[in-house]
Amino acid sequence: MTSTPPTQKKEVKLGIRPAVLGVPAYPFTPIDVPIKLDQNENPYDFPAELKAEATRRMLERPWNRYPDLHADKLRDAIARFEDWDNRSVVVTPGSNVLIKILTELAGINQTLLTTDPTFSVYTLEAALLDAKLVQVSLKDDFSLPVAELKAVMEHEQPGVFVIAQPHAPTGYVDDRADVEELVKHAERFGWVTVLDEAYHQYSGTDYRDVVKAHPNTLSLRTFSKAWGLAGVRLGYILAGAEVAQNLQKLVSAFNVNILTETVLEVALEHPQYVGRIVQETIQERQRVFDALQDHPTCQALPSRANFFLLRTPDAQAAYEHLLRHGIVTRRQDSLHLLQGCLRIAIGTPAENDALIAAVKELR
Ligand SMILES: *Cc1c(COP(=O)(O)O)cnc(C)c1O
């Protein structure tokens, strides 16, 4: 005799790793307003004549053929531009992918060490890939906690140590001596150090010489910010030969498509446009900062990137006020040390005028 089984809800096991199940979906909601200051993008598009040239070259290329296996021609062009050994350049579609493979290289079953606050992608990849995440609080002035970081390097199982210079999301630039001290200590205790230089054009800082001197250290760079190519997706790493060779094993074949490759080829033949835009952004950053200096309730925090933090008495109210003025910013007020803070990108002069006027109305 058979009986029909009782209809009961059985917990379905999906076979998904608990680390992945435990991570909430990426919390970014695009908002359609005229003034977009929420993603630290370049306010200016890639120059029209270069777009036209890239498009012309695209039409001539066969689209039915696979691209270079490991983007060798593009890596050569980046190596020439950066004065680097071409075998020690690693490229992926956006530096987010680099952060993932760096976590795969040295974080999984090991440790990912960074600051708190930090760039959210580092902690996200550590969580997804189940690396042990150790975060050390920045000092109150946003400088690196050198002694505390060194202590962690000595006591934790080594892995990957990642910091951004300028720091994200504060825009703070540390003393070179502090960064070098950390690089040396990390090397001594067997850590791979990642210096994320996504915003270095805006700060005038450059750690290539430190990377050359320390084979465990690498510089992460992107075409998404100063180059104005966030939509095209390309990030790269300048490393020592051994780190680069091992990192390259983690890059999937054909990971840079011919569209990206062609646009980057044109951009690297005409890098002059970048400097002009960066100069304007630096001047505008100072102008916005000066204009908000005597604000009765809000404080613009100094930054050397293309964005800055605005500390407000009520981040939600400030965010909504700016949105009503057609300006979207990024709330950072839930982060450690950033109570009341919005992160705001420097836009075009007209966008910055609108921002200044709207912030001046805030109480
Ligand atoms: C924007 C940004 C990047 C670049 O990301 P892409 O994936 O290359 O667009 C890298 N690091 C930090 C800290 C950033 O803010």
From TrEMBL:
Location of the Aminotransferase class I/classII large domain: 35-358
Modification N6-(pyridoxal phosphate)lysine, positions: 225
UniProt pathway: Amino-acid biosynthesis; L-histidine biosynthesis; L-histidine from 5-phospho-alpha-D-ribose 1-diphosphate: step 7/9
A Pfam family that the UniProt record links to this protein: Aminotran_1_2
PROSITE patterns recorded: AA_TRANSFER_CLASS_2
Cofactor(s) this protein requires: pyridoxal 5'-phosphate
Enzyme class: transferase
EC code(s) of this entry: 2.6.1.9
Record field: catalytic activity: L-histidinol phosphate + 2-oxoglutarate = 3-(imidazol-4-yl)-2-oxopropyl phosphate + L-glutamate
Taxonomic superkingdom: Bacteria
Keyword entries, A-Z: Amino-acid biosynthesis, Aminotransferase, Histidine biosynthesis, Pyridoxal phosphate, Transferase
GO MF term set: histidinol-phosphate transaminase activity
InterPro entries recorded: Aminotrans_II_pyridoxalP_BS, Aminotransferase_I/II_large, HisP_aminotrans, PyrdxlP-dep_Trfase, PyrdxlP-dep_Trfase_major, PyrdxlP-dep_Trfase_small
Self-association state and partner proteins as the record states: Homodimer.
HAMAP family assigned: HisC_aminotrans_2
Protein family: Belongs to the class-II pyridoxal-phosphate-dependent aminotransferase family. Histidinol-phosphate aminotransferase subfamily.
Protein name: Histidinol-phosphate aminotransferase
